[in-house]
Amino acid sequence: xxxxxxxxxxxxxxxxxxxxxxxxxxxxxxxxxxxxxxxxxxxxxxxxxxxxxxxxxxxxxxxxxxxxxxxxxxxxxxxxxxxxxxxxxxxxxxxxxxxxxxxxxxxxxxxxxxxxxxxxxxxxxxxxxxxxxxxxxxxxxxxxxxxxxxxxxxxxxxxxxxxxxxxxxxxxxxxxxxxxxxxxxxxxxxxxxxxxxxxxxxxxxxxxxxxxxxxxxxxxxxxxxxxxxxxxxxxxxxxxxxxxxxxxxxxxxxxxxxxxxxxxxxxxxxxxxxxxxxxx
Length: 280
Ligand SMILES: O=C(O)c1cc(=O)[nH]c(=O)n1[C@@H]1O[C@H](COP(=O)(O)O)[C@@H](O)[C@H]1O
Known about the structure:
Blueprint: H1 11-21, E1 25-29, H2 46-58, E2 64-67, H3 70-73, H4 76-93, E3 98-105, H5 109-122, E4 127-130, H6 136-143, E5 149-155, E6 168-169, E7 172-173, H7 174-182, E8 191-195, H8 203-209, E9 215-218, H9 227-234, E10 241-245, H10 247-250, H11 258-279
Helix pairs in contact: 2-4, 2-11, 5-6, 8-9
The structure holds orotidine-5'-monophosphate.
């Protein structure tokens, strides 16, 4: 795929879109060919056909899409091509939509630079999820892209988050150290954090140390997190939340009506979001 001209999206534009659509919904495009409707398997590119139908049916309800790269890499070269077609389709047809490469990268600086080029320059994603474990020099190559966002894993939605992230080092939980330390690397226009929806009771403290940053919040839907609980302390003056649901939306039906069923699920969340936004 050749690089094409594309205007990168700032957080201010993201906030504008949130207010226009009355939505801070992110739809996760985690495509599993064992779960897509059988008739799509006859398509030349079933993954892209599935994504296109979901995007066309839900783009007015969501402000962001988040393909998790594992679901594409698992199908080898063909899967990677489906990912390329998906991001190109989003950028060309819905340029207002915010895009997240959920790739959870991060390596020595020289290698992180290549990851950053892959997802920001070549694929033209607006943002990427990055693991902070290797420290500042592994994250800075992503932050050097001025109009792109780096989304650091802070407190993840899974049970294993308690293995390291909530453990104390010198009296402070590791996830707090990640947030506090990284705040000195770049400003809130370039830096966001992942905080799981299943960890709603932590949002108050997280907002104390990261009042301005956007938080990407996966775990609503299939993992059982509550939108209302997250919003109680997670919202900030710019809304500041992107709530992701993947399986709960895209696999609402495995029948021919899968895209309409996905739109209904997205609509349920958007309606709840509108009610919340109307009150602030
Ligand atoms: O970075 C992520 O997006 C992420 C972080 C996290 O703590 N928990 C988490 O579930 N995710 C991702 O968010 C998506 C959640 O999918 P569902 O549980 O199907 O809604 C998957 O792509 C996960 O890999």
